[in-house]
Amino acid sequence: QSVLTQPPSASGTPGQRVTISCSGSSSNIGSNSVYWYQQFPGTAPKLLIYSNNQRPSGVPDRFSGSWSGTSASLAISGLRSQDEADYYCAAWDDSLSGVVFGGGTKLTVL
Amino acid sequence: EVQLVESGGGLIQPGGSLRLSCAASGFTVSGNYMTWVRQAPGKGLEWVSFIYSGGRTGYAESVKGRFTISRDNSNNTFFLQMNTLRPEDTAVYYCARGSGPLYLDPWGQGTLVTVSS
After folding, report:
1. Cα–Cα distance, B62 to B78 (Å, whole number)
2. A110 in contact with B at a CB cutoff of 8 Å?
3. Which residues of B touch A86 (CB under 8 A)?
4. Strands A85-93, A34-39: parallel, antiparallel or unpaired by DSSP?
5. Is A67 in the B-facing interface, judged by CB distances under 8 Å?
6. Tens digits of residue pLDDT in A53-104
7. Based on the number of CB atoms within 10 Å of its own CB, is A13 exposed (0-12), middle (13-18) or buried (19 or more)?
8. What is the pLDDT of residue A64?
9. Do B44 and A104 touch (CB under 8 A)?
10. Do B115 and B87 meet the contact criterion of CB atoms below 8 Å apart?
11. How does DSSP assign B5-35, residue by residue?
């Protein structure tokens, strides 16, 4: 059972906008920044969003992050087939003094 | 080019020990958060440990007391010493550079550790 809760799956059609939620608590999302990672099968994760809503260089602006209270969301607009991957949220947890990840969401592009 | 290359994975019996290495190039390990994250087969990501530039370390509860992170600045490499291994430690272990415990970029290609008799 992950400390951060994500839906196990999400789906959308090409061109659509999809959102993936990440729910936590006051000791993690409620007091620390949220990060998002993208992972394709058989490859290492890649940083997608940092500090709740910032994109590293090279990440398309179709990807955006938001945060409110103890929850965060990743939005992908203009969905493409190459966006089909697993997405993970992560945050620092003050109670655990460590990094916690969500269980991951598998995005399917129909 | 900034790159990380893991090594040291393999098959080990329960209760055994293994040391993973992560060789860095294009930057110095001493100036960053160097982190290990693992992924059990078919499962999600799990943070394992980090070592900070000042020598501060952090461990997940699941490995505390069994795993030790360290670094060799002269060889620009950091390590994960894993003792008293359990079947539930079976995973692909990734190393990553962090400018902070969560800004992990880049990641290595991963090394598989299988704990089984």
Report:
1. 20
2. no
3. 44
4. antiparallel
5. no
6. 999 999 999 999 999 999 999 999 999 999 999 999 999 999 999 999 999 9
7. exposed
8. 98
9. yes
10. yes
11. EEE--EEE-TT--EEEEEEEESS-GGGSEEE
CB contact under 8 A, B44 and A88: yes
Average model confidence (pLDDT) for chain B?
Answer: 95
Mean pLDDT of B60-68: 97
Answer whether B91's CB lies under 8 Å from B38's CB.
yes
Whether residue A1 lies within 8 A of chain B, CB to CB, comes out as: no
Any B CB within 8 A of A40 CB: no
Measured between CA atoms, the residue of chain B closest to residue A45 is B107
End-to-end CA distance of chain A: 28
Q: What residues contact residue A41 under an 8 Å CB cut-off, 6+ apart?
A: A85, A86
Q: Do the chains contact at B47 and A99, CB–CB below 8 Å?
A: yes
